[in-house]
Amino acid sequence: MQFTEQLWQDIQPIYKSILEHGFVKKLTAGSLPSPTFQYYIQQDALYLVDFGRALSQLAARSTQPDDMLQFAQFAQNAILVERALHETYFALYAIEPQTVKMPACFAYTNYLLATTSLQSIAVGAAAVLPCFWIYREVGRFIYQRAIQANPYRAWIDTYAGDAFDQSVTQMLELTDRFAEQAGSAEREMMREAFRMSSRLEWYFWNDAYTLNGWLV
Ligand SMILES: Cc1ncc(C[n+]2csc(CCO)c2C)c(N)n1
Question: Which of 120, 152, 195, 199 gives 20 to 30 Å between its CA and that of 178?
Answer without folding.
Answer: 199
